[in-house]
Amino acid sequence: MPALPPLPEGFTARPLTPGDVPAVADLLAAAEAIDDTGEFPDADDITEWWTGWDLEFDRDGLAVLDRDGALAGYATVMASPTFRDDYRVYLEGRVRADARERGLGGQLLAWQQARGAELHGERHPEVPGRLVVEVPGTLPALERLVERAGFAAERWYRSMERPLRELPEPRRVAGVQLVPFDAAWDDEVRRVYNVAFGEHHGSSERDVESWQRLYTGTRSFRPDLSVLAIEAGRVVGFVLASVFEADTEARGYREVHYGQIGVLPSERGRGLASAMIAAALHEAAAHDCAAAALEVDSDNVTGALRLYEGLGFRAVRTRVSWSTALPAAAGG
């Protein structure tokens, strides 16, 4: 683990601990009024997220405390257990609103870059690595910070939403049944995901453990609101739905989020995605959801942006993925 960074007077740093999770949730909740990321994770959501990414608190997390011992900022360094092409290490964190513009963000990022390079070297030095920071469009100061640190914008994403009224008509695809998710199909859906997302930027195949820890085994996953397309006894497409109840409490209404939408490449062009999403929208509306949301890569090779716009989704926020490359070890 890199040395703890020097900080402005009145602040100290130490390794992050599981006991910091409630304070991190409080920091994010307080900052949301300014940052407007559209996310309201509670302590359980954060714990599940960090557990899903196998965060080692004492090595891959940093807490910054003010002179009163309150959390003023935090930083994490996490990498997926699976990868394709390059080993991507994600740098996340936030500084408390009243502690900004004092140099804390720059020091945290420098520590993350050093630890991210170490993590790459420890786990997969034989392949090229990449440090990645996801920057919401509402955080221009973070964008300036990562650009000064040598990161370059590599991908643009849109968060899209639509109200669950005036829904698209249900659609049928010959020979295909649209059914709710069932655990009996879980591993086949995982394998279809791995094929369907094989050409998507930054994606990687999911093994059984990471699939369940990040997707179908999470607290927020809603199998009853998810839709599978079944043809001749096999899965050909899926829409996986989640509802984050902490977001429901913060917003005052329930929103369903479609985090994973995929169709086997051999089955594209038949209208399966639009049929599944239309069915999912109707199901969500019947289960006390007032809105639906999803995210799309602006350069998605399957034309997903046009599809979602045609189903009534409109962009409400943007996010840019900034990254910097790490070389593979010599002879790797």
Summarize this, please?
By secondary structure, the protein is of the alpha+beta class. The protein has helices at about 20-35, 45-50, 55-60, 105-125, 140-150, 185-195, 210-215, 245-250, 270-285, 305-310, and strands at about 10-15, 60-65, 70-80, 85-95, 130-135, 150-165, 175-180, 225-230, 235-245, 255-265, 290-295, 315-325. It has ten helices and twelve strands.
Topology of helices and strands:
Blueprint lengths: L11 E4 L5 H15 L7 H10 L4 H4 E5 L5 E9 L7 E9 L8 H20 L5 E8 L3 H9 L3 E12 L13 E4 L5 H11 L11 H9 L10 E5 L2 E10 L1 H7 L3 E9 L8 H14 L5 E7 L6 H7 L3 E13 L6
Describe it for me?
The protein has 332 residues and is an alpha+beta fold. It folds into 2 domains: 12-158 and 320-326, Aminopeptidase; 169-311, Gcn5-related N-acetyltransferase (GNAT) (Aminopeptidase), CATH 3.40.630. 32% of the residues lie in helices and 29% in strands. The chain has a 12-stranded mixed β-sheet with strand order 1-2-3-4-5-12-6-11-10-9-8-7, with helices on both faces. α1 (21-35) packs across α2. The protein is globular, with a radius of gyration of 21 Å. The two termini are 23 Å apart. The mean pLDDT is 94.
